[in-house]
């Protein structure tokens, strides 16, 4: 599962649901409430499941940068916006934000430059999309809002936790599954309460 | 897109409100139209029910 070529398979335009999608959906069914945003929805599979099955979710909005993904998600019945990460969303709008990011570390000289690469590649570190997401996501959260972020060990678990802490979040692992070449975790991020330790 | 989407989206450049102009719609949603930033005036298309809120420089390069 570490190799971009293996993960791409035959599909070249839209990332299709896989183990990581299942893990994110399960976490969201338990943790998400109210108005939910899924960033980088791909085929729309997670967003649709959460919309249909999550008891305390009122509304799901999804986004993707890839026009093919937007069309697939819409055909699935998901309310979708084409956009770049969190840029087109209002401050304080969401009770939960879900993100299964592109995270495979990729050699810049060995990239495909197609939509499937956009769906999979996290640049040289694996964190090129995760970091700007973490830096901006607090803005779009409602006061008690949470983030559910899929983290692969391939993209640097501790580095991602550190970046989330810098952005003002406490984290908790709510799902975890190990595969031969990586461990996938769902981190639940919530705004650090003033009473908890550290910078205060 | 449903009209209620306006409650959660904004101009990706300056985060101001968007004004909706409808060209074609069903009872439930808007199929074709535009979203215009109330501040900077940038116009974002809605095509086949999907608003394209990429900033203009990303909109051109990517299909």
UniProtKB/TrEMBL annotation, chain A:
<keyword id="KW-0808">Transferase</keyword>
<protein>
    <submittedName>
        <fullName>HemK2/MTQ2 family protein methyltransferase</fullName>
        <ecNumber>2.1.1.-</ecNumber>
    </submittedName>
</protein>
<keyword id="KW-0489">Methyltransferase</keyword>
<dbReference type="Pfam" id="PF13649">
    <property type="entry name" value="Methyltransf_25"/>
</dbReference>
<dbReference type="InterPro" id="IPR041698">
    <property type="entry name" value="Methyltransf_25"/>
</dbReference>
<dbReference type="GO" id="GO:0008168">
    <property type="term" value="F:methyltransferase activity"/>
</dbReference>
<dbReference type="InterPro" id="IPR052190">
    <property type="entry name" value="Euk-Arch_PrmC-MTase"/>
</dbReference>
<dbReference type="InterPro" id="IPR004557">
    <property type="entry name" value="PrmC-related"/>
</dbReference>
<dbReference type="InterPro" id="IPR002052">
    <property type="entry name" value="DNA_methylase_N6_adenine_CS"/>
</dbReference>
<dbReference type="InterPro" id="IPR029063">
    <property type="entry name" value="SAM-dependent_MTases_sf"/>
</dbReference>
<feature type="domain" description="Methyltransferase">
    <location>
        <begin position="36"/>
        <end position="100"/>
    </location>
</feature>
<dbReference type="GO" id="GO:0032259">
    <property type="term" value="P:methylation"/>
</dbReference>
<keyword id="KW-0949">S-adenosyl-L-methionine</keyword>
<comment type="similarity">
    <text>Belongs to the eukaryotic/archaeal PrmC-related family.</text>
</comment>
Automatic annotation (TrEMBL), chain B:
<dbReference type="InterPro" id="IPR005651">
    <property type="entry name" value="Trm112-like"/>
</dbReference>
<protein>
    <submittedName>
        <fullName>Methytransferase partner Trm112</fullName>
    </submittedName>
</protein>
<dbReference type="Pfam" id="PF03966">
    <property type="entry name" value="Trm112p"/>
</dbReference>
């Amino acid at each position: 599962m570490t190799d971009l070529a293996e993960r791409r398979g035959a599909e070249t335009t839209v990332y299709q649901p896989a183990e990581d999608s299942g893990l994110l959906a399960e976490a969201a069914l338990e943790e998400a409430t109210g108005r939910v945003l899924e960033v980088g929805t791909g085929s729309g599979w997670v967003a649709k499941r959460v919309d249909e099955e999550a008891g305390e979710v009122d509304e799901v909005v999804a986004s993707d940068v890839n026009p093919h993904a937007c069309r697939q998600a819409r055909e699935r019945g998901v309310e979708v916006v084409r956009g770049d990460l969190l840029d087109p969303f209002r401050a304080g709008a969401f009770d939960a934000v879900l993100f299964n990011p592109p995270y495979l570390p990729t050699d810049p000289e060995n990239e495909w430059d197609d939509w499937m690469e956009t769906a999979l590649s996290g640049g040289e570190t694996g964190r090129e999309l995760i970091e700007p997401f973490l830096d901006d996501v607090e803005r779009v959260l409602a006061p008690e809002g949470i983030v559910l972020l899929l983290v692969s060990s391939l993209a640097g678990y501790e580095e991602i936790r550190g970046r989330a802490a810098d952005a003002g979040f406490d984290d908790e692992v709510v799902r975890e599954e190990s595969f031969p070449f990586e461990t996938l975790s769902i981190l639940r991020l919530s705004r650090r309460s003033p009473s908890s330790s550290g910078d205060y | 897109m449903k009209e209620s989407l306006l409650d959660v989206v904004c101009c990706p450049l300056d985060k101001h409100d968007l004004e909706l102009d409808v060209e074609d719609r069903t009872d439930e949603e808007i199929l074709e139209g535009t979203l215009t930033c109330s501040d900077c005036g940038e116009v974002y298309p809605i095509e086949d029910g999907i608003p394209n809120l990429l900033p203009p420089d990303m909109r051109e390069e990517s299909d």
